Amino acid sequence: MQFDPSSSVPPALAPPAPQPFLIPPAKRLSFICGLTLATVLAGLVELAFKRGLAGAIAVDTLSDFAAAIWRYTDWAISSFVLGLAQWVILRQYGLTHLWIVATGMGGLIAQAVGFGWQAKLGLVLSRLAYVWLGLAQGFVLRRDARSAWLWLFVPPITFVLSSLLFLVMLGQTPTGIAVGLPGPSYVALIPALTLQGLLPAIALCGLRQKGSSARRPSSEAAFHATPEITDLAQLRSIAQELHTQLTQTDIPEIAEDQDLIYLVDMTVEGAIAMYQPVNQAAFDYADQTPLPALAEAELAGQASQANQEKYGSEVATFARFQVIFQAKGDITIRSSNGEPLS
Q: pTM of whole model > 0.70?
């Protein structure tokens, strides 16, 4: 990578307001695998617990009232275990522990309603009751994601398809007609549980964050209020220091044919104070660049105040640059308005 201040990269326009995805594209594969595995493990743990407890208390001999208590206990345990397992993965992407509560309560209500519907609608269609799970989880997602109301449909569709797959794997159809060769129940359970984790994981990857400013490294107001250094010689010197810092870290090919464009503020001491993604790709792949690790934690106002106390109130505190991580692997640094530093 070479410092090329005169590269003919088109200057960035005024920063748009793109919304980054809830799950960054670079992390989607690991997220999908993680959430799917967590869902499968939760289902197997719940099944093992239920079989062990059912054998210990002889469920078949319980009275109607005791059997009802057992059913609700089983539903609550399975729902909260699922919520906890999924939250272990989801918390890495900003979702709170309320996901556990929403999944537990929503799943309990959905299974209770579905149990009442099963006599009339059958096993598969009774899973439409999982709309209650979608409603509960949607309330949690709406804090972080746009169009969270669409989540209302994800759990019912997921459980309808997984139940259908379960029956087919057992060698049956929803109407009770045998198809193919039936296998043991655990063979049918694994693909059904996999589908229950896979479909929500894919759906979560399609959600965009609500209010990207809450997740940006610096606020719009603080960023645009920062005074700039305008001396060209000083800008060139600081730009060279910035380039040196950026190239000390290996940068993978992360955006295919897209350039990642950022506005970056450097202090006169050569520290990266903050950065601002300009285009959508820059939002999505920010974590794959060196900027998050290099950026200082202090806010623009705090750094500005400290430098003004040190150098005087008339001294500009930051040099602002446009940094372009090009798809071919080069880094281009230009002035904040996109002009070459030559």
A: no
